Amino acid sequence: MMLGSRYLSTVFTLAEFELGKLKHDFSEIAIRGVQPALWLLVFGETFANLRPVPTGAFSYIQFLTPGVLVQSVMFVAIFYGIMLVWERDLGLLNKLLSTPAPRSAIVLGKAFSAGIRSIFQAIVVLALALFIHVPLHVGALEVLAVVAVIVLAGMCFSSLSMSLVPVFRTRERMMGIGQAITMPLFFTSNAIYPISIMPPWLRVIATFNPLSYVVDAMRALLVTGDFQTLPLDIGVMLSATAIFASIAALFFRRILD
Amino acid sequence: MKAIEVQNLSKTYSDLKAVDEISFSVDEGEIFGLLGPNGAGKTTMIRMMLTLIKPTSGSIKVFGIDSAKFPESVRQISGYIPQEVSVDGDLTGYENLLMYARLYHISKEERNRRIREALKYMELAGRENNLTRIYSGGMMRRLEIAQALVNKPKVLFLDEPSIGLDPSAKSTVWKYITDLREEFGTTIIMTTHDMQEADTLCDEIAIMNRGKIVVSGSPEELKAKVGGDIISLETRSGDCSTLLQGQGKILSAKQDLGLYELVVAEGEKALPMIFNRLRERGIQVESVSLKKSTLDDVFLAYAGVRMEEGGTWQEARRLRRTYKRLG
């Protein structure tokens, strides 16, 4: 019992101070809003005029908005590991690992803060979408659920990133691997086109891509209102996060070696 | 009970034995120094004792706790001040202290009191709400020591505590380290490549070179062991190493340059005798110097090289980076 509460207190302490840093420097969130804005305004508007993608009862821009939202969260979270490398090089990680905090609590604390950070990111995209009059469901319940999905997605992809640090180790390589996996993750998911129009081999990949499930959940909440696959989506996100975080915690000590 | 007991400890990286079968023990309340050049394995030793890296073989006990079995219990009673700056520049001084106090699970009332005291004691009161990235190198070190005060560790590990600090900041840090021991009885394990630092602070010293402890003892014992004073000679014409052998222990001989260093019990008396012998053989002395013994000489005598000669370019690079950040 006491162990459990200590564990949680460690996770929340780390997350709280990570987030505390944001209040000293808020500009990074604004800068990170640029890329999703381009996707939505330039890519989305143009593609909507072409009408090449069958999106059923919904307009293409409606279809695209949840995809861009999730993409913006993923693109930031996937580089989270670089911060770990940076902290190791500064000596901060050594110090953190010398505290009684269990490795898994450190990973979870950092993942949780990455998840919370993602909310700010998502607010920028959502505000932009509403500004250009994309019809979305934004009732109190939907928004709450959307926030939960975003936090989970941020945790999932930042854990993936942290699990790669023990292998890739340097900032340059983490940059490289981050770039090498974001685009494939993005294009083999249902973020900008539905799985139904993909060639069969790509469909197989898309079903193994955790990003597809995040987008699916987001689309259900914001656009379609069809919650049939929501439990599956959440289940996949939770298990993916658990797997990535466990790998990261297991090999955490190798980051220092 | 011993504060630290290390037995046959080794750490091997693919082809390098960073730490090679080391054993030693440290008494409670002692300031114990691991002295050696860069790359001797000191930092690896500290990180193994702190359970940050896993030993390849051997055992470590910290206040009787087996660090392989209960790493979290060892970390709960340990404090660590790494060589690199370990305060988070994106947090304020107060936030840095608060975060670590919470990670050590110190109760709310207790930690508020201890943080206030530590800030005052380390002369950081009034600056605690500034981001630490604007702190000077000396202030950052003081904040790190303040962290140790808040957590009240039974054993504190210091990796090169005064590296990159200017002389006055250095002596301030030394004062706080000795005070920490006087007031709280904290056992302190430190690494250093600074002979003067080891001489000033440490009760016991283990001199390391290439992953091994080459000699250990109190600074006085060690200096006595080298047998006293050092004579450096610069001569012209001919090899005089055989001739000098009879006069004392030769530390280094560079025949081609005519440079010799030897240890003698009493330099003042040995010098005239050496001069006489050399003159008899027709060897001319260009210059001579006499030096009373220091720990650097102890190192030279046991490790066969001077301290400054060790180390790799990576170590040097890291060292410089630390200097830059502290400067």
Secondary-structure blueprint:
The complex is a heterodimer of chains A (257) and B (327).
Chain A: H1 2-24, H2 27-32, H3 34-50, H4 60-77, H5 80-90, H6 92-97, H7 103-131, H8 140-168, H9 171-187, H10 200-208, H11 210-224, H12 230-250
Helix pairs in contact in A: 1-7, 3-4, 4-7, 4-8, 4-11, 5-8, 7-8, 7-12, 8-9, 8-11, 8-12, 11-12
Chain B: E1 4-13, E2 16-26, E3 31-35, H1 42-49, E4 57-62, E5 65-66, H2 71-76, E6 78-81, H3 93-103, H4 108-121, H5 137-151, E7 155-159, H6 167-184, E8 187-192, H7 195-201, E9 204-209, E10 212-217, H8 219-225, E11 229-236, H9 241-245, E12 249-254, E13 259-264, H10 267-280, E14 284-291, H11 295-303, H12 313-326
Parallel strand pairs in B: 3-8, 3-9, 6-7, 7-8
Antiparallel strand pairs in B: 1-2, 1-4, 4-5, 9-10, 11-13, 11-14, 12-13
Residue-averaged pLDDT of chain B = 87
Residue fraction in strands of chain A: under 5%
Domain module tally of chain A: 1
**Gap from first CA to last CA of chain A:** 33 Å
**What's the CATH first level of the largest domain in chain B?**
Alpha Beta
Order of helices and strands of chain A: HHHHHHHHHHHH
Q: Could you say which structural class the secondary elements and strand pairing of chain A correspond to? A: mainly alpha
Count of distinct strands of chain A: 0
CATH superfamily of the largest domain in chain B: P-loop containing nucleotide triphosphate hydrolases
- What is the 3D form of chain A? globular
Q: Greatest contact pair?
A: A-B, 25 and 30 residues
CATH topology of the largest domain in chain B: Rossmann fold
Fraction of residues in β-strands of chain B: 25-35%
